[in-house]
Amino acid sequence: MPGSGKRKAKRPSRPIEVRDLSNVDIPTVIDSFVNQINDARGWSHVVALLCRMFDLPDLNSRSGLRRVHSNFEQVQRKLDAAYNKYRANEKVTGGIVGIYSKMSRDAILRNKIINAGLMPKLLPLLDNPKTRLIGLQALSNVTHHGGSGIRREIALTCTPTLLRLMEEFPDNAAYNEQIIVTLAHAISPVVNDEDSTASAKAANIRKLNVPRVLELVFSNIRKPDASQCLLSHAIEFLCSVSENCHKEIKANPSALNLLVALLRSKDLLTRVDALGALCRLVFPESEEDWRFMDPNKLMDAIERGFPPHLSDALMDYSPTECDTFLIMFTKRDYIKAMMQVAQDKDLYGLGKKLAEFVTRTEFSISDGGYQAVDERTGRVKDLDTDGLPFKMWLDALPHCAKALRTTGTPADLDAADIIECKFYIMKSRAADAVRIAQAAIERSPQVAYFYYVVGLGTDQALGLRASKKGLKAKKTTPFVRHYLLWRAVDQAGQLGLAKLQTSHHDTAGWSEGIAFFTSALEDAKRFVAETPPDSRNMRIVLNWYILLTITMRGPGLSINLRELDNALKKLEITREFGKFYSIPDSKTQLRLVRDVIVQRYEQAEREWRDLIPRLDNNPHSSEDVQKRSALNAEDNLAAWLEGLSVEEHGERHCSHPSLNASPAELWHCSHCHNPSAMLRKCSGCGKTRYCDASCQKLHWSEHKIACKQAQAQAQS
């Protein structure tokens, strides 16, 4: 009865050991089962008989595998004895290899089995028509669950044989599915080995004959009866080798088109994998973005005059607010201020001006000086600056900061920190600048420039948080806001791509990745709408906007991408501004990916429009189950090989994640909208989430009423 406190004593389980055959004549034992094995109608029956013969525990459970662990040498000795005795009996040898491959799902057992000589037993099965399928299934299983070392060995030793079988049996769906699964798992560790030199990788790519692998894989995925298993592993293979086999993929237009066509899948995970593969594909040929703007070339361009269409773009925005004119005006004001201080020696006044210049444009401070050319010698000489503690203009910044701090007012302390941060940035001492900015935020959390500085650090997540906080700060300027938007787009885009490629769709990492992408896309829209057309960061943000729109909307976009016409037109204007200012249009990774996608989008859809819907089909639909049954016509051994129960309940299955806006909202700070998995809940209402206490404090005035209402409702 419930609550009686009496429980029936649990009977201790009797330890199950592998049958001790040490004193038994092995041939006699095997002979007693051989007739039954020969009469068995399928591989699963053969394996069951062999397992019973050796009293093997249940290999579908952890407890069974643990018992094999404790008796592995004995199990291996008896299985090897049976294999050697009946080497000419296909059913015995095939069944024993099947047992070994089942055990190989356990990582420790797998290494023991491989070291004990599984491959010499397995490979001969591939050339025997009666054992070929069980051999391929076993090889697929070992590769699927093997470590990188085992996969490398299988790739380098088995690929020629597997390619030959695909050529000899092009219409055997069962063979080709298992081969493609094996190749998908085995080749990647070889071509992506980080410890190998570039020449060694190239040699392995030639040895593996990757171009031929691509041809045979693609001939199979085009077949209307290709199973979901074959399709998904073919895509996995293509995506996994895209960086180090970029030449081979680019030489195969269909492979390149397939990566682009995958961006029209209904499955967000598939689209993200395709985007990641394309990013890796172009990476070896990409360049760093050209971040330097030569003021002299800028002035020369302005003196030449703007082409009419560029002039129109500036006029539409407001010329005096465009970057070009802000840089030009600031340079003029900066020189004037430095000339003025040489006369009045007012470092405090200069500091106030410099702080305003720094938040007006990125190119506010130049490293000039009080110098002149000696007419007699032709050399540059320092001019007399009696009363000033500096000769080079950049060195004025710390002196001005010191003068500003003497007043002790919050505004002057902020100005002092701003120009000191700028000094360290120009001296390539970003860590010192970040340190000062972080301290300044404690005093003045509403000054956006300090978040701009913190975002210069190397940690992307911290940089994104700083950018999002800075966008909420009230004391800002157009330059600082636009810069923070650019950084927020770039950092969230990079973080989202990394998260989504390494997370399962039903995990916190997946939700966080969606939040990163959503945040990046929203900020990209704001940037494009607010920023002047001559912004040098416009190219980067437009590239992200195009790539994120294509990835997030998937098949919802038209085939000709007409929804992106305005963005592409703006991109062309931005490129022409860069050309006008003599700024190279660098072949950045984002630009190259965008070029590939936009140029091939329509033709890729035409070539692969029949495949993508099949790939999107539920992999556990009844139709696909029938296909699997047909592929494994001999019996259900494939299911047995794959069906390890780890004594956990619930089915293992793949599903197709889709974009859902509401879960993504859970991963944004309620104040600054920074996407993060490490948000703290409001202890009052339990609904809003924050990066930290500072965000919660800054949001309180806005959230206070709603929070108290939620608490009142909870108590009523």
Automatic annotation (TrEMBL):
Gene3D superfamilies per UniProt: 6.10.140.2220, Leucine-rich Repeat Variant (1.25.10.10)
Tagged with keyword Zinc-finger: yes
Residue stretches making up the MYND-type domain: 669-707
Database matches in PROSITE patterns: ZF_MYND_2
Superkingdom of the source species: Eukaryota
Name of one Pfam family that matches: zf-MYND
SMART domains, A to Z: ARM
Ion transport recorded as keyword: no
An MF annotation (GO) of this entry: zinc ion binding
Keywords carried by this UniProt record: Metal-binding, Zinc, Zinc-finger
Name of protein: MYND-type domain-containing protein
Organism encoding this protein: Phanerochaete carnosa (strain HHB-10118-sp) (White-rot fungus)
Lineage start: Eukaryota, Fungi, Dikarya, Basidiomycota, Agaricomycotina
